[in-house]
Amino acid sequence: MIKFQYNKTALQGLEKQLKIRERALPTIKSKESALRLEVKRTRDEMTALETRLENEIRSYEYMSALWSEFDHTLIAVSDVALSSRKIAGVVIPVLDDVKFSQRKFSLFNSPSWFCDGINILKTLAHTGIEAEFTGLKLNMLERARRKTTQKLNLFEKVQIPGYKEAILKIKRFMEDEESLSKSSQKIMRANQLKRSLKEEEEAA
């Protein structure tokens, strides 16, 4: 509900606020549209990564009996390289690289498939981290999109129509007041004329 007074100052203030919102509206619409597209793209990316991870795990199931022999301390994630980019004014983190640290082991004393096992774990870990990261990015984008949609709805459906209605009410009130003032002046002039004519008749 927009509070206002029926005067010229209030009218000017409301017109200024309306202009600000009308000017901002195309930018907010464009931002909301860009975020909506990015949310869809990221959601598709997330689904693809989850499917890829499932397929990778499934493709290594034939080795499941061997994993009990594998020394899991041979490999670990040492670092995750990040950067950032802006999407419709929202800063989004970007996963650039996943770095691994690998402990030395004897190729002669270890099973021959340990090298393959290390590469498999690297692939699975990378896909898993990428999927987690994409999920985080999706949450950030959805939150930004919701906020932008709320602002768009507030401007488009509440504030802009509200300001227009308030401006119209003030203008009508001021027009009515002006008409009333003109009517009063006409009546006063007519009464003055009558009095003048009467005075002239009485004088004659």
Quick structural overview:
With 204 residues, this protein is α+β, with helices and mostly antiparallel strands.
Structural write-up:
- The chain is of the alpha+beta class and 204 residues long.
- The chain is built from 2 helices and 2 strands; from the N terminus they run H-E-E-H.
- Strands 1-2 form a two-stranded antiparallel sheet.
- Strand 1 and strand 2 form a beta hairpin.
- It is rod-shaped.
Task: Write out key terms for the chains shown.
204 residues; alpha+beta; 2 helices; 2 strands
Q: Which structural class should the secondary elements be placed in?
A: alpha+beta
What does the overall shape look like? Answer: rod-shaped
Task: Give the biggest sheet.
Answer: 2 strands, antiparallel
The secondary-structure element order is HEEH
Which segments are poorly predicted (pLDDT under 50) over 5 or more consecutive residues? none
Terminal-residue CA separation: 64 Å
Mean pLDDT: 86
Tell me roughly what share of residues is in helical segments: 55-70%
Query: Beta-strand percentage?
Result: 5-15%
Number of helices: 2
Q: Taking strands numbered 1, 2, ... along the chain, how are they ordered across the largest sheet?
A: 1-2
Number of DSSP E strands: 2
Rounded radius of gyration (Å): 37 Å
